Sequence to fold (252 residues):
Amino acid sequence: METTPPQLPNSTTEADGSAVVRVLGYNVRSLRDDTDALARVISACAPDLVLVQEAPRFFRWRKKLARLARAADLVMLSGGGTAAGPALLCSLRATVERTEDVLLPLTPGLHRRGLATAVVRFGGARLGVVSCHLSLQQDERHEQGGLVLDRLAGMGVEHVVVGGDINERPDGRTFRRLAADLQDCWATAPWGGEFTSTPAAPHQRIDAIFATKGVEVLGCGVPLGHPGVREDDLRAATDHLPVLAALRVPAG
Fold:
């Protein structure tokens, strides 16, 4: 976790109405670790959107998620317990059009999965947003990948970003299914670190941010060496490393 990457572009709204948006994907393990360290990592990344996996789902889950959002100078957008774990946080820069929490079909004996979704605007740019956490079971995971793509097609938005814990490496069939229809942002414009699991010994990329083809990926990866992101905080915050992307979204 040593080298310092070039600086990602800052969030901005451009003269033509397009917007540079910072998107952070992060599995937070139900906030069971050092939430102060987690909030420091999120804040240092200065995201406009945080696509959370494993948000708290049970007792006082809204209060716990709201406390994290407040500590990172963000607000809750959607998801959490009502989406079976995925959640969305956003900065006050976002204008929210709508949100929807989606529960995916339940396979008996396996965990319930869901999607946190929203449509937001930044200046003249309109963006669909989806946070997902796919199954550990291969066949169910592949089916859920198709359901994510179906959801994107039905959102009625030209430009969409999807972030999630895919529970699979890029050579897996579900990851490849998503990357066939969407841009795998790390593969498109690699920046920072590649591997997201585990913080103590990163060796695999199982978390990713994807974007529809019309979105320009300016950089994407694990924010190792990013200003304000400390290695000890990354290790203490949760059992995954985050993925940070800078995207240019065209005006509507």
